[in-house]
Design goal:
mainly alpha
Length: 71
């Protein structure tokens, strides 16, 4: 963790995550191996149509946290 004034604290008003109506957001840093696990085909043009069960489970988990913690 870094102090709120640190350049990596995520407080830059230019960051799209800081430009929402509520002023609250999350930003997830996902490794390449984790992203690759979300798709049957990880190619640039094939990812959108090859989301797998791992992707769906991850999205569901993130949505659940957002709905229960940040409403």
């Amino acid at each position: 963790l870094v102090s709120p004034s640190h350049r990596l604290a995520g407080g830059n008003p230019e960051n799209i995550n800081n430009q929402c109506k509520t002023g609250q957001s999350i930003q997830l840093e996902i490794s390449t191996p984790q992203r690759e696990a979300f798709f049957s085909e990880f190619g640039l043009w094939t990812r959108a149509s090859s989301k797998n069960e791992t992707f769906q489970a991850y999205v569901s988990a993130v949505k659940e946290v957002l709905e229960t913690r940040y409403k």
